């Protein structure tokens, strides 16, 4: 499923280049990234990144981009293939409308993570802000995945139509793993939470379930991959104690009209 | 209480002496009005007056009349209001409808008159002299800087932004695959290519079969992000961020699962049979700064193709348009409150938004006052019904207009307003294969080309009468319009003098 893992496995052989991003406005930086990809580089290490937006925007290549520093908004927007590793925090809009590929953030991320995402994976080691995974959707063999190591803010999985969101809640106080309005308007997909939450934090369109054996196997695989890539210690996490949020209906707004 | 609490709107009458029992009406009606039991029978309660049966009956044996049933007159309680209450008392819910606002609001276009040359300045004969309708959509530079190159030729020093050339100032508005059939989209794509103009995908993705027409297609990115991916964004000549739609300002859209068959599912990239919910806002746009972020995300993704931002015309449209221009958009698509839709709650369609005429005038004025009119092209839509409307819209300040409803009418639509049922007998607003197959894309394209060419001739004729030989000289030329029967405040907002002044 992970289309970028090949880049990890043969790290020794890949054609690598380092780029000092400090001098560049985003437009120039992204042009340089594209031209490096066109010159055949498979791994691009960006040093000194400081808020440049749109890194990885619309890229369809199976390349690996390592970001040292804090990338700006819309990291990996419309992305379709690359593997991006951020060795710091990220800002808003990570993986916006992403189609495939992978983004790993070894730190916090801001608001609107994985909006309208259709495939690929986003791993955030620490916390995420508001509106994560809004309108995620799956299509055929594309199942988007967001895993958050810490907590998530309000409106997690709002309008969610497909895919998987996992929140691990490492270091988060009990009952605070997600914010309010979680899963409002949800009509597909699944949200797994490592801690139980009060019903008052849920939207009207979701219900709480216990995890089954399939869920546990799926969680074990994801958590192990997450730990390997983000470096987060997950030893205290027991997938069998997770709760699962599913939509009450696949057509929450089917009875709103008369003709 | 009988199930049929509401009387039929129309009465279908079959002349059994003329009827030759060929059953074409049964085949053609998408709404299941006709049946055959020894003779052709009609269930009037299902009729929407789409005329498909009338057109296809070889004997002209079918007539459709309005149900003459009398209602006690009441000036406050219009019959439509009474019917709405009966429907909502029967089944709780919002009343759904299709096409554009059908209420008799004042139509400002019909109160504007166009000037013509007499004696003191000569008119131009478009048969004899070139008449330029070609229009360039996109950002224009603040100023041109030129220099002489080594050979003494004048060359531009500052690069021009990408602009899109259209041969006529009329493009086709965004109608998604899902809301209309693929054959309807094919017809529009073929026509756009032949006319040298543009079509727009709407929020339904771009079907593989339409990629060959991509040089004449604007691809849309709306709140549901259906079918949006890198290849799609790069396919068209421009990308449009759809914020709002004239028929339903401020609300999202629900394409019911019944309409998401295999093909629509593939283009929207969502599973078959699931409802396609478009959230009311883009959840990554809560401010002008956020809009700028998405505009430049799209530019970065497409190598800086022009980006259009489509909004419904609402009360504060001028300030919003100024923000859109400053956010980096190359085009602003204004969709007036008469704009069409496949489905909208009637309360929103009929009561939310403002007329396109007002919106064009105030947006053009605001952008001129701020000195940023050159930064964007204005496309006006939502109520463009004729070549006269085209001329008036451009004279009020638009660069070009977009037509949706007019294009559908050209392909057979009778404005029955039942698009949301998916039963369109004309094969337009439906995904039922037996209905969509009856719309031949080449036939549809020819009618669209004929319509736009007819309007072009008429626009040229009017331009000639105005003594103008290029559509560009008409843009924002409100001095060539006068109003008749509008109040002084509206005249002032429009920037148009009353007749006689």
Protein model, in words:
- The complex is a heterodimer of chains A (259) and B (501).
- With 259 residues, chain A is an alpha/beta fold.
- Chain A has helices spanning 5-9, 26-38, 213-230; strands at 16-20, 43-50, 64-70, 80-86, 100-105, 121-124, 145-148, 161-167, 188-193, 206-210, 243-247, 257-258.
- In chain A, strand 1, helix 2 and strand 2 form a beta-alpha-beta unit.
- Chain B contains 15 helices and 23 strands.
- In chain B, the strands form 8 sheets. Chain B has an 8-stranded parallel beta sheet. Chain B has a 3-stranded mixed beta sheet with strand order 6-22-23, covered by helices on one side. Chain B has a two-stranded antiparallel ribbon with strand order 1-4.
- In chain B, helix 11 (387-396) links the parallel strand 20 and strand 21 (400-403).
- The N and C termini of chain B lie far apart (62 Å).
- Strand 12 (257-258) of chain A pairs parallel with strand 5 of chain B, so a sheet runs across the interface.
């Amino acid at each position: 499923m992970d289309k970028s893992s090949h880049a990890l496995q043969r790290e020794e052989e890949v054609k690598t280049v380092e780029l000092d991003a400090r001098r560049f406005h985003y437009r120039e930086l992204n042009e340089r990234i594209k031209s490096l990809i066109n010159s055949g580089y498979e791994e691009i290490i960006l040093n000194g990144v400081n808020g440049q937006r749109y890194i990885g925007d619309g890229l369809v290549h199976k390349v690996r981009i390592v970001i040292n520093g804090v990338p700006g908004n819309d990291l990996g927007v419309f992305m379709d293939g690359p593997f991006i590793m951020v060795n710091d925090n990220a800002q808003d809009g990570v993986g916006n409308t992403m189609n495939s590929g992978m983004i790993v953030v070894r730190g916090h991320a801001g608001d609107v993570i994985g909006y309208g995402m259709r495939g690929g994976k986003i791993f955030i080691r620490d916390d995420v802000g508001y509106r994560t995974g809004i309108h995620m959707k799956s299509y055929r063999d594309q199942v988007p995945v967001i895993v958050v190591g810490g907590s998530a803010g309000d409106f997690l999985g709002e309008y969610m139509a497909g895919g998987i969101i996992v929140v691990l809640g490492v270091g988060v106080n009990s009952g605070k793993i997600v914010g309010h309005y979680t899963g409002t308007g949800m009509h597909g997909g699944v949200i797994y939470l490592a801690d139980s939450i009060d019903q008052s934090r849920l939207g009207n369109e979701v219900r709480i379930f216990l995890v089954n054996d399939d869920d546990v196997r799926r969680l074990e695989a994801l958590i192990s991959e997450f730990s390997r890539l983000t470096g987060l210690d997950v030893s205290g996490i027991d997938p069998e104690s997770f709760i699962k949020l599913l939509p009450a209906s696949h057509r929450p707004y089917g009875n709103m009209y008369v003709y | 209480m009988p199930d049929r609490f509401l009387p039929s709107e129309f009465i279908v009458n079959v002349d059994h002496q003329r009827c030759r029992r060929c059953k074409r009406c049964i085949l053609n009606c998408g709404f299941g009005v006709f049946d055959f039991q020894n003779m052709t029978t009609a269930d009037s309660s299902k009729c929407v007056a789409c005329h498909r049966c009338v057109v296809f009956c070889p004997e002209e044996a079918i007539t459709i009349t309005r149900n003459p049933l009398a209602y006690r007159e009441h000036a406050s309680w219009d019959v439509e209001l009474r019917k709405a209450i009966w429907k909502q008392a029967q089944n709780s819910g919002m009343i759904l409808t299709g096409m554009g606002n059908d209420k008799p609001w004042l139509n400002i276009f019909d109160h504007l008159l166009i000037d013509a040359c007499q004696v003191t300045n000569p008119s131009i004969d478009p048969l004899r002299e070139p008449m330029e309708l070609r229009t360039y959509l996109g950002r224009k530079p603040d100023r041109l800087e030129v220099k002489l190159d080594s050979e003494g030729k004048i060359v531009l020093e500052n690069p021009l932004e990408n602009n899109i050339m259209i041969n006529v100032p009329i493009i086709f508005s965004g109608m998604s695959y899902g809301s209309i059939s693929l054959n309807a989209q094919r017809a529009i794509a073929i026509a756009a290519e032949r006319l040298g103009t543009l079509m727009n995908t709407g929020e339904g993705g771009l079907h593989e079969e339409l990629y060959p027409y991509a040089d004449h297609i604007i691809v849309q990115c709306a709140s549901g992000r259906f079918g949006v991916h890198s290849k799609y964004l790069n396919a068209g000549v421009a990308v449009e961020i759809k914020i709002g739609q004239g028929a339903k300002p401020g609300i999202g859209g629900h394409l019911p699962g019944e309409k998401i068959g295999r093909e629509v599912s593939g283009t929207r990239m969502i599973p078959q049979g699931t409802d396609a919910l478009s959230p009311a806002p883009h959840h990554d746009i809560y401010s002008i700064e956020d809009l700028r972020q998405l505009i430049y995300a799209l530019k970065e993704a497409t190598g800086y193709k022009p980006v259009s931002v489509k909004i419904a015309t609402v009360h504060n449209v001028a300030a919003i348009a100024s923000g859109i221009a400053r956010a980096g958009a190359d085009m602003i698509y204004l969709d007036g409150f008469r704009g069409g839709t496949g489905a909208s709650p009637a309360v929103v369609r009929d009561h939310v938004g403002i007329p396109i005429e007002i919106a064009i005038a105030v947006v053009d004025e605001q952008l001129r006052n701020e000195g940023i009119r050159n930064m964007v092209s204005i496309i006006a839509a939502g109520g463009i019904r004729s070549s006269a409307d085209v001329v008036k819209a451009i004279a009020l300040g638009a660069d070009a207009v977009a037509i949706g409803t007019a294009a559908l009418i050209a392909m057979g639509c009778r404005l029955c307003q039942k698009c949301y049922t998916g039963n369109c007998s004309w094969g337009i607003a439906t995904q039922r294969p037996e209905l969509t197959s009856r719309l031949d894309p080449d036939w549809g394209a020819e009618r669209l080309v004929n319509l736009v060419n007819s309007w072009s001739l008429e626009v040229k004729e009017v331009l000639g009468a105005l003594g103008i030989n290029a559509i560009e000289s008409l843009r924002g030329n409100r001095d060539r319009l006068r109003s008749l029967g509008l109040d002084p405040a509206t005249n002032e907002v429009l920037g148009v003098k009353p007749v006689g002044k």
